[in-house]
Amino acid sequence: MAEVLNRPSQTRFWAVDKLILVYYAFTSIVILGWWNRLPDAAALFAVHLVGVTLLVFEVKRPNRTSWLFRNWYPLPYVAFCYKEMALLIPSVRRTDADQWLANLDFRIWHVHPTVWLERIQTPLLTEFLQTVYTLFIPAVLLVAFLIWRKRLYQEFQYYAFLIALGFLVSYIGYLIVPARGPRFLLRHLQRIPLQGLWLFKGMQTTLDRLESAHYDCFPSGHTELTILAWWGSRLISKKAFRAYLGYTPFLIFATVYCRYHYTVDVLAGAGLGFVLILAAPAIYRRLSKGA
Hints:
The chain is mostly helical. It has one domain. Helices cover about 70% and strands about 0% of the residues. It is built from 15 helices and no strands. The radius of gyration is 20 Å and the shape is globular.
């Protein structure tokens, strides 16, 4: 492994490195542009500088940690990008798009889907769909771990790029169309609260603590990334591909049933997922030149 790291080509930036560096440059510009509105702007900007410096060091100065770092660092970096959106969006955008998205949903269906779905609501179904929704991140990461375990490193690096691209594009969508979701806007119209059986309340509370301050509805990252994970699972086995094919529709339905998303969010997320499946290989090849 040390011999591989010492090759000249390994001191060049990979596609995922270029993607993340460009995104960090973009958000750094946002921080500087809205410095006076942004709480803890200096600390946030410092974290960006440290993250970029660490990445450049690991690329340009290969060492014992570089191989593991370069393959897995997108996970904490992209997670940080999600958390900082809770600070950036309220500072940059003074209004949200919830009412607009709810109106679009109503024009399509002539009802509010989350309200209409009360007629099929049961504790058992709620428990099941909340569990499916909560397993979103583990499901996306499981594909990466299984590809890594098979030592398909080139495939792993492409999957890491694809997932990072999917997350970062969705974050830009959150910034352009900030919305918190029907569980907040339409709460006064819901006649029946969601009730599960055993773990529902704990799962919902945990997700609320992690996500409730975020304007993370449009596009539906859950829909987009699950579709990308389903597509990536074919690199593992046919059995995994079929399992994810079964999981994905339940996850998509859960986003609306559990009142996290409008249906237009889901349509946008699904469309974006399929666009990235088609476009990402060409983007990856272009960004990988010389690496």
